[in-house]
Structures are given as C-alpha cells and as structure tokens.
Amino acid sequence: MLIGVAVVVGAGVWLARRPANAPSPPEPQAEEAALAAPGLPPLVVEPVSAPAPFSSETEVSTAEAPPAAVAMPPVSARCRIADGRAPAVSRQVPPNWLTGASGYEDAVRRRRSTAAPMVVYFFADWCPYCKQVENELFAKSDVERYFSRATIRVRVNPEENASNRSLADRFGVDGYPSFFILGAGGDEPVKCTLIVKGESAPISPEELERKIEDENGRVAKELIYQGYERREAGDLAGAEALLDQAVQSVPTEPDAWINRAITRERKGSLDGALSDYAVAAALRTDGTTHELAVHALFNARRFDEAVACATDWLQREPSSTKAFGMRARAHRERGDRGRYLEDAARACELGDSGACAVSGPRTGALPPAQ
C-alpha cells in the first residue's frame, strides 16, 4: 500500500480520512515504478482540545473580556521545542555483503536490531549482465560507501545449492540479475531493475541510492499511517511501537516525529511529546509543529510555556495571525491584561476582526514580537 502521509493544519476543525481509491500494495515482482508512485491526499491529525483563536464569526462575550489590569512580569519560561536539532542518519549495518541463504537469514535477524533497508541480489556466474552490474555499479566507491553505511546487503547464487534455489523461488526469481529492496520495517520486497531500459549499461550510483531510499521512505510512511490508525482506534501502545519504527527507519521524516508526539501526549507524556516536537520543528520551516505544541501546552494548562513557544513561532512566522491570537489567549489565561491586549491588537491589524472586537482597531506599523 503506497501511502503518502503529511500533517496539515486547518483553521479550526481537524479531520482525518483515507481516500477510498488508495492503491493496493505492490506485488513482489513489481518493477521500480512502484517506488515513484504519487502520494495520496494529506492525512490530518487532531489535537485533543484547545482554546480557539479569535474569530470574526462570533461576538466576543463577557467571558472574553480582558483580565483586570495587574502588573505581570514577562514570561521567563523557555520553549522546549526551540532548541531541537535535526537527527543524523546513522544505521548499524554489516560492512560487507552477506552471502547465500544463510546470509539472508542473518540479514533478517539484523533487521530486528537496526532500522535499515535491505537489498537482496540474485546472480549467476555465467550471467554477463551480472558481471557488468558488479564491475560497473557495485564496484564503484560511491556505491560501496553507501552500502557500507546505510544498507544490509545480501548476494545469492541460486545455482550454488538447494537452499539458495529455494530462497530464489520465494522471491519469484526468473532471471538474472534480480535485485530486490525491502524497506526497514517492511515485509514485501520490491523488484528493481539495475540495467537502464533500452541500454546495455547499469543505472548510476545516484539512481541506485535514490531507489533504495525512496522505498525505505515509502515503507516508513506506511508505518506512520498504521500508527495513526492504531492511535485513533485507542491502541496507544501499538501506535507508539509502529511510530518508533518509522522514526528509526527515516529519522528525517517530520511526520513520524509529529505523529509520535501526538501519541505520547495522549498517553500522558507531554515532556516526551515536546521532545518529539522539538525534532520535528528542526525539520520543518513553517509553524505547523509550533501550533501543535502550543495546543498541547494549552491542554496541560502550562500557559507560560505556551507563551514562550508562541513567541518562538513568531520568530519563524512574524506575520502569523494565528500565532498572535494563540499567544494572546495564553497571556489572558496568565492574567496578563496588557500583553493580552497588545497581541490582540497585532492580530487585529493582521486582519482578524474577532481580535479587533477585543482590542479595538489599530493603525501603524506593528511593534516587534515580545
């Protein structure tokens, strides 16, 4: 099942749906066209609850009146997601080819302890294309460097013994060379052609790496979707286990970190969720992750931290009406009338008429975010 997963933030309502016309999983014999299939419409995740931003669709009730004027010190709390760092991709893989059916079984065991894709290469000694692939592709330093740091690799000669032949039959091998990719956490091998169509030359090292990483990413996105489904079904432990696999197999995929953060928040581990949001924020350039984190802090009534994270959000998106509105609400919950009105005024100037109903219209340049 080829699933593209993305997190999208809506204005007020959060929904989740899977399209009815989602494609079926590729057959083990499917060619590499499966690796480049287009993704599906985005998946949207839903926070538990949070105060809504200002809205021009509703009048401001007396409950929305500003708090009484009280001198409040500025917020000293830090936003824990502000210092997140993008993770390095590090996979513990064997430095050399594993060989034969026994090497394949060893590779399967190793996959359980390392989140790395696996490739299985079937060849024959008499096969001229196999020699070409080995001499003109596998022997290149770029390929060897990539394999030795990122991929569990197995080479099998089915004509060598019965065990190797049996393994080839399991993969449906009907010619040589045959090359299969299994993404980390995936069970279905995808066949990949190593010879350029219409030419008697192997694909480039860059193309080989792209094919392997694309398949690994596809499997990770499927794990993310399965984790989402488990979470929505109430199986938080099962969801977290699947999302752990996704984070490990493609640590640069922000959707994996975001979905695990939401799952951890629902399990009651807000600090764990904020740690995941910190990584996701380092991988994204917009305010999506900050919005989710501020929602989580609202739910936990940690309003000082909500102010700090909304402020960090505004450093990324200085003209975000939503960020000003959410920070204003956090100030209001803290009882800080002055900063509440100031942020409401900024939101008003940026076009939020609901905020104008609180603060009154404002003209002139916006002051810098505090």
What is this structure's SSE topology?
Elements: E1 98-99, H1 100-111, E2 118-122, H2 128-138, H3 141-150, E3 152-156, H4 162-171, E4 178-182, E5 190-192, H5 205-232, H6 236-249, H7 254-266, H8 270-283, H9 288-299, H10 303-316, H11 321-334, H12 337-349, H13 353-359
Parallel strand pairs: 1-3, 2-3
Antiparallel strand pairs: 2-4, 4-5
Helix pairs in contact: 5-6, 5-7, 6-7, 7-8, 8-9, 9-10, 10-11, 11-12, 12-13
Write structural notes for this entry.
By secondary structure, the chain is mainly alpha-helical. Among the domains are: 76-87 and 215-333, Serine Threonine Protein Phosphatase 5, Tetratricopeptide repeat (Alpha Horseshoe); 98-214, Glutaredoxin, CATH 3.40.30.10. 46% of the residues lie in helices and 5% in strands. The chain has helices spanning 100-111, 128-138, 141-150, 162-171, 205-232, 236-249, 254-266, 270-283, 288-299, 303-316, 321-334, 337-349, 353-359, and strands at 98-99, 118-122, 152-156, 178-182, 190-192. A five-stranded mixed beta sheet has the order 1-3-2-4-5, sandwiched between helices. A hairpin with a 7-residue loop joins β4 (178-182) and β5. α5 (205-232) packs parallel to α7 (254-266) and α9 (288-299) packs antiparallel against α10 (303-316). The relative contact order is 0.15.
